[in-house]
Write a structure and sequence with these properties.
Elements (H helix, E strand, L loop, with lengths): L1 E5 L2 E5 L14 E5 L5 E5 L7 H8 L16 H9 L10 H9 L2 H35 L1 H9 L4 H19 L1
Antiparallel strand pairs: 1-2, 3-4
Length: 172
């Protein structure tokens, strides 16, 4: 039986066993003191049933997510200050999103990706145009036979346009 005291709460727990390692747990932590000096501090870990701890200490959720209809969350900070509420941390996702949108690295990356897309589009269009011209030149004899059989020039142009539209649609 062990008596554990944390901050303002105290409870009795039964120690079941000791473990050398725990996933994601570092037994020592390095903290920076106000003088800029790094101090190594041992950290202790207790693995317990969360429901039991809540019943014993009347613990509240350790993380609260809220959505507001305002542009800023300053009203929440003012309310907590006026009522003496203390938070271990406060993260404003809307502010972080606005800040990330104006990040020059992200804007530069978007610009590079946009330019590369436009260049690749031009290269593909040029290749398709070259293929189309070479295809027409290699089929000159076939067009002559169509004309000899009585097909009009408008019909040949319509045939070429419909071929290119179908080929383009299949490619898309």
């Amino acid at each position: 039986m062990a008596r554990i005291k944390t901050y303002a709460f105290m409870t009795d727990l039964t120690i079941v066993g000791f473990v050398e390692q725990w996933p994601g747990y570092a037994p020592t932590g390095v903290y920076t003191v106000g003088t800029g000096e790094h101090v190594r501090v041992e950290q202790y870990l207790a693995v317990a049933n969360f429901g039991y701890i809540q019943r014993q200490w009347e613990a509240f959720p350790y993380e609260v997510w809220m959505r507001t209809n305002t542009d800023t969350n300053n009203f929440f900070r003012e309310y907590s200050y006026e009522n003496g509420l203390l938070f271990a941390g406060f993260f404003d996702t809307r502010g972080a999103l606005v800040e990330s949108r104006s990040d020059p690295i992200l804007q530069g990356l978007n610009g590079v990706l946009t330019m590369s897309f436009i260049v690749i589009l031009i290269i593909c269009f040029t290749g398709f145009l070259i293929y189309w011209l070479l295809s027409i030149r290699s089929r000159v004899l076939q067009f002559g036979i169509f004309r000899a059989m009585g097909m009009s020039m408008r019909g040949i142009i319509g045939l070429l346009i419909s071929e290119q539209v179908l080929i383009t649609l299949m490619a898309i």
